[in-house]
């Protein structure tokens, strides 16, 4: 799995639960390294081991931990992180939802070798849609749930996001948009904020 | 049945042009502004009727300064500069059906700066424009660059530390054999221009300390020796522990025999003071072999120098302990090593 994904897992655990906790996880997962490097590739088993070790040490279910990680990816990285890249998906939350199936292509514009969850967006009557999520890391759908809830907040939209289990090798995430403009959106400027 | 296929519609509405080309400028036959797209209208003040060439200068191709020439050069890639606003533009002109000209503009490489300066949003670009993708890639790449930059800083720190460790004797903190060999090679590669001296310090009675007082005491003695050697030399000198109880000091620009003797005597005198190690008295002494580049016949090989130094140390030991000696005349590479 790409180092950026592993590094995101590491940053989530370190920043949420502390540096000492991360060291504990690395030890428990028999990582053999202090931490992941963003631009190197790692065996998928290492990512699995880290997530399993963190769940054991925190006595938390894998699903809820992954969902928190999805939220962290949006809210935990300040004004220069993934949140900004996701806001390039469109000016409204509905635009953003429909841009989700472009995420792997978009990511490859910047990093040709990165593999991200493949998301297929299926629209239903009303403001409902279903996301079919396929990714080697099981539970990636829960990361998407946390991420979508945080992005809805970012856009000021009110919506219900839920994980509906696994069907034919894909994790299914349901999204019901209740109000597109429920609260003031967080500001987003196309121009990069100054360092 | 389908109706007969009509040719392309004669005119597009202004609203259609605004959607397709939000940065267009429509001119009449005299080159006056008839309409502007919404985005270029936000950036350049182009009132109805204003002459196009009062608003823009065409930098390339050269020689396009009037409406007729502009119409004649339809289809060519234009490089324009706004006379009133900041920034440069790419453009292309086409003739319209009413003897007028339609000029469509875009930002070129100045897009990042333009987005910042004019606070442009997704709505300012045509739906088919790849500008948003470009901005996205620039931002994603800068985040990656930032990651790589911090990685480089971490690696440089780790590299310096590893190099330092690779050259350091972990017990005493002075240089190790490898670092000494490198330092000697370096000073030899500049031979002639740079005189230097060497001291080979060998402890006497060290084994006795180790055997009777234990290894901890022995280690303390070695650390003490390293401290004394470091204090008695300059930071530009290389102090190295090259074996169990053997130290080597390389002194660039110190080749005067009397001066080397003096330093060696100070070291010997300090090391003959007993040291206290957890209440136990450790007594050692040091013998010093000396070598100077003065009078040496170049080019020098480090093996020859070390053999001469060895002979000097042997001579020092033969004179009784706690002495410093240069190699007797005639000692060289051919001389048998210490028995």
TrEMBL record, chain A:
Transmembrane segments: none
GO function term, MF aspect, one: heme binding
A Pfam family that the UniProt record links to this protein: HNOB
Annotated InterPro entries: H-NOX_domain_sf, Heme_NO-bd, NO_sig/Golgi_transp_ligand-bd
Listed SUPFAM superfamilies: Ligand-binding domain in the NO signalling and Golgi transport (SSF111126)
Gene3D superfamilies xrefs: H-NOX domain
Domain Heme NO-binding positions: 2-156
Protein name listed in UniProt: Heme NO-binding domain-containing protein
The species this protein was found in: Gemmobacter aquaticus
From TrEMBL, chain B:
Domain GGDEF: from-to ranges: 194-329
Transmembrane segments: none
SUPFAM superfamilies listed in its UniProt record: Nucleotide cyclase (SSF55073)
GO function term, MF aspect, one: catalytic activity
One Pfam family hit: GGDEF
InterPro entries from the UniProt entry: DGC-Regulatory_Protein, GGDEF_dom, HNOB_dom_associated_sf, Nucleotide_cyclase, Rev_trsase/Diguanyl_cyclase
Entry superkingdom: Bacteria
SMART domains attached to this UniProt entry: GGDEF
PANTHER family: DIGUANYLATE CYCLASE DGCT-RELATED
Protein name: GGDEF domain-containing protein
Taxonomic lineage of the native organism: Bacteria, Pseudomonadati, Pseudomonadota, Alphaproteobacteria, Rhodobacterales
